[in-house]
Amino acid sequence: MTGEPSARKGTTVDDMVRAIAEAIVNGEWLPGARLDEHGLAARFEVSRTPVREALSQLAAMGLVERRPNRGAVVASIGDDRLVSMFETMGALEAACARLAAERMTVVERARLEEAHLASANHVRTSAVDAYEAHNARFHDRICEGAHNGYLAELAMLTRARLAPFRRALFAHPERLSQSYEEHDAIVTAILRADAPGAEAAMRAHLAVFDRRPDTAQRPADAVRIAPRPVP
After folding, report:
1. pLDDT for position 210
2. Between 43 and 2, the higher pLDDT residue
3. What domains sit in the chain, N to C, each tagged with a CATH number?
């Protein structure tokens, strides 16, 4: 394998999943490349047990395949398949946003808005990791706010499988500000209990992924960040 991520002592399973996923998404490890457990264990200074767990999680994401007599290899995900997965994620999360606008409690709405406004500082300081963590929790809050456990489970599972590809978009600094503005439209609709508006805003937010990867990852036009008044 070439282009392997740097190792550090004390690496966790989550660290390995993220590092290997990013190497795959960035094209450092090509489809069909063998992921040797011994090599990965040495690379990350861990035993083979956490390596197996990391590879299992990557297989669940669809980034790794387990083949007879070859062990784990980098999976091949075609553009059409990837676009279909993003399209499904958009439909599921749009449905969650619609229900959240109808069903979120007063406390849930207040916490959603508070977290959203606080995230503007991450955008201003270009704190990609911090915004990425906020973004994940933002979408979780909306899925939970739909108060439909099965729908939330499907949406979160699909989003988790696509996490490495979604993360690549935040490599463009302009995407942070655009994401914030799109979140703002979603939050505004939910606070107003505007179910159709929340659904449409979420679809628009996730539409950036609903195309070929080479198009989806182009830098978006920068937009100004300005806290809005509470509706």
Report:
1. 53
2. 43
3. 13-74 (1.10.10.10), 79-216 (1.20.120.530)
